Amino acid sequence: MTLPQAVARLTTGPLAQLNNDPDLVFAYAVGKAAQDDDSDDAALVCVWDSEARPDPELEKTQHFTLGEFTAMLDEMEQGRGWEYPSSPAVKVLAAFSDGILLADDSGHGMAARARVIELPEQLSQVALERVRGEQEEVARQLESIADPFERTSLLLDACHRAYVALFAAGGHWYPGPAQREEYIERYFLNERVPEAEKLVWEASTHADDSSGDLAGAWRDFVKAVLD
């Protein structure tokens, strides 16, 4: 397989410095270059059979221990560890599912890839149930919260869960906020969702002067997600 140039540079750069280490379990490339030959956006992720991540990290290189990586896979299969923007597993595994394996003498990388080819059914079920179940509670809180910081924090968490559910309903990993609109188009998901989300944030800016219906905008957003 001919590697994209940006990915090939990883193999002669940071991976060349790490590949002979017996503790390296597998390594893979992530970033737009994994899908687009013309992109320079590529980074190396290494998984190690050790108790701690290597230090210091090389440029454009991220490290996980095998225990950390396996725990993320286990959590997703159990429908846990996805609920907040700070939860790393969804984004890490979304990137892994789109990434390119570069080193895998152990076979652990291929085994892990087999676990992310299809989104875990439990994750899909739990995410959709959570968003349906909390729709009205979030709307109620949006109507009652006076502090803008607390309101924004609630929306960031709730919107994250809504997007995980949107992608999960289509059988896809949620790639994170920076790529949400690009991947909605890529996977032919409901294109009304980003616009509905924008209306939520617009209503949030007017929540203090009562000129916007934030709870109503939130309900419309969730309806678009679940449709």
TrEMBL record:
Domain of life: Bacteria
The protein's name: Uncharacterized protein
Source organism per UniProt: Salininema proteolyticum
